[in-house]
Amino acid sequence: MSDHSRRGFLSGALGIGAVAALTACTSNAAPAPGGGATAAAGGDNAEPGKPVTIGFSCPAADHGWIAAIAANARNQAGLYPDVTFEAVNPTTDIAQQIAAVDTLITKEVSALVILPNDGSQLTALGRKATDAGIPVINLDRVFDSPLAYRTWIGGDNYGMGVAAGTHIGEQLKAKGVGNPVIGEIAGIDNLPLTQARSKGFADALSSYGYSVGPRQAADFTAQGGQRVAANLLQAAPRLDALWNHDDDQGIGVLAAIQQAGRGEFLMVGGAGSANAMRAIKADNTVLKATVTYSPSMASSAVALARLVAQNRGMGDLVEKEVPTSLTLASATITKDNVDTYLPLGFES
Where is the secretion signal located (predicted)? Predict the structure, then answer.
């Protein structure tokens, strides 16, 4: 769950496609006669319902992933003739985000989609909206209390770490590497998302009998990635593998690797940026794979906000209510499957 900085997306392609599928299979079909707990697949929720206004707030776009979050949300809302989309100015200032969302609460919007700068610090705001009768779709960086949101949707940070660790473990085992030195360049260490990614990575490596070696945290920026990678490479004269949590950050990481003239190890990225995928396809750097954390979640958040505000559910589920939690899967992109994912990549 992208708690601090995230990345951008190619004009919402994945988001719109992903949620087109979601909206095409939403319906409140009644249980089958005889009491069977079944629901018919239906597409009626893609049809116009009662008009609703969806408020939206996210951090300022300091790099590609966040830019894609905002673009995907707006593009998705534009698919619905029954939705008025009201976005407040993005900001990295928590007090400003609180004040901006307060204006949406005062306007009594039908639902709110909020990607908070900091989930903990905006929990009270989510609770305020909920107490005012405005359902909140908490996007990515989770609030401290489930009382502050109707539904949370985000990526699988632990799963990202597992995917990265599994790929590295498989590659090193296949090469017969004993006692490998495996580095890690994390994001911001005090964020729960970074902690979850690192735990998944360590857990996956341990299943191969491996452990994390030199580890440093950056800040999800290319500049921070370059600085931290330079330090890590200087301190580690030998590496067999390296996981970098974030592909935007990875621009700087790759620059530092190239400047150091290093190439003896394989690198795995994180998030699924288009530039990372192009490098994987070209196969001319140490970057051989990346694990996804898709900004399509913003499109899905808007689709879910619409359903909740209109008192509709997801028709391919038996339950008549939108779930309270949805976690996206993390895929591993390599040279073998990069052509499938490349059209969906976001630009760093």
Answer: 1-29
